[in-house]
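Inputs:
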Amino acid sequence: MTEKQQNIFDTALNLFAEHGVDATSTSKIAIAAGVSEGLIFRHFKNKEGLLNAILSSGMEKADAYFHAIIGEIDPKTRIKKALELPFQIDSKDYAFWRLVYTLKWQRGSIESDGMELFRASLAEAFEQLDYENPSAEARLVEAIIDGIATEVLLKDIYPKPLLECILKKYKLNKLHK
Amino acid sequence: MTEKQQNIFDTALNLFAEHGVDATSTSKIAIAAGVSEGLIFRHFKNKEGLLNAILSSGMEKADAYFHAIIGEIDPKTRIKKALELPFQIDSKDYAFWRLVYTLKWQRGSIESDGMELFRASLAEAFEQLDYENPSAEARLVEAIIDGIATEVLLKDIYPKPLLECILKKYKLNKLHK
DNA sequence: GTCTATACCAGGATAGAC
DNA sequence: GTCTATCCTGGTATAGAC
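Outputs:
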């Protein structure tokens, strides 16, 4: 990527995340990126192409996190790590995740293969721990992650106390390591 | 409201919820509602006015639910009712809530006075039950509600098993009434 | 790789007739 | 209350020069 191309990429990501894709015109991106409007189309074909470039690049990074959790063998630790996920979002990635959560509501969620595996591995962990309804438990964890992530991404608050509360409910707060 | 006015209202709500406000043009609304485009502006001044009409009408209804929970004196029952909230969304109101959740990410959340009171009354309930960090617990419940609501509104699944899982964690599953 | 100019279409909004 | 016609702006996208 050339410097200007990277400029377009970063600026678009931020504007998309803040105002939504539809409310962000290519001309606004061009101006904010200090670039001619035509260049956007040269590099990314069209607005949709720009969006896709942003999404696939972000999901690639995200998948690394999911795989780290899937690779955890101890079921308790795996669940704990999953619950910790939304508390560890790198603030550099806020814009990307805001964009992902926004798009959920209009274009359907962006599912990576890593996410699919993540879900299955959670259910498996609950099964190993003899929970009554493992698949429901897994979906609940997912919902909690989404809820906390929303809280973290939208309001700019310090969320750590919430983590304590959750872990206590799963009896994971005194887990070694 | 005249019949056509109601038509515009309902159609706009559904289109806004499904595709987002920005992606829904007034002409699309007009066509889908079987109405001339000009009529929208006669009745609602502009697109923003139409959106506001939809939002304030919906929040009025929503506040009734919040007040029912605030009015609950027993702290355990109050928390239980709060957690049950997302499982009881009337399917007729799906479009409205989808819209509300969508707007969170672009225009900031739509806060009613009922919601503010709801939040405070939750913290109070946890305090009465001697939880360590009542305000964090209240925010956690809110996050869980948001997460479940997202699940319910986006995927069309049967969510009841999740409710069982949650209530167990709060030790509220065997609460009489 | 990058900019300028431009074509083209769609969106929001208004005026005036019925 | 409702429709038709119309205006203006701004959005996406392309062509061609440098």
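Remarks. Residues 2, 4-5, 35-39, 42-43 of chain B lie near DNA strand D (CB under 10 Å from a C1'). Chain B has a mean pLDDT of 96.
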